[in-house]
Amino acid sequence: MGLKHMVIKEMIHLRRDRRLLFLLLAMPLFQLVIFGYAAVLDVKEIPLAVCDQDLSQKSRDLIERFLASGYFVISSESTDPRDMERALDSSKAKVAILIPNGYGKRVWKMRRAEVQVLIDGSDPTIARVARNYVSQIIQISSMKEVERRMGILKAMGMPIRMPEVDLEARIWFNQEMKSVNYMIPGIIGVILMVIVMVPTSVSIVRERERGTMEFLISSPLKPYEIIIGKLVPYILVGLVDVLIVIFAGRFLFGVPMKGNFLLLFLLSGLLVLAASGIGIFVSTISSTIPQAMITLASLFIFPSILLSGFIFPIEAMPTPLRLLSYLVPLKYFLIISRSIFLKGAGINLLWDEALVLSAFGVGIFWMSVLRFRKKI
Amino acid sequence: MGGVKRVLYIASKEFIHIRRDPRSLGLVLVFPPLMLILYGYALTFDIKRIPISVLDMDRTRISRDFVRRFVSSGYFQLKEEARRWEDIEKALDSGRARIGLVIGDGFGREIGGGGKGSIQLIMDGSDSVAATTAMGYVASIAQEYAVELSLKSMETAGVGAILKASYPPISEETRIWYNPELKSPNFMIPGLMAIIMALFNVVLVSVGIVGEIERGTIEQLITSPARSHEFVIGKVIPYIVLTFVVLLEMMVLGIAWFKIPFRGSIWMLLLVSLLFLTGYLGLGLMVSSIASNQQTALLIAFLVSTLPTMILSGLVFPISNMPWAIRAITYIVPARYFISAIRGILLKGVGMGILWPDVLCLLIFCIISISASSLLVRQRLKWD
Question: How many angstroms away from the CA of A214 is the closest CA of chain B?
Answer without folding.
Answer: 17
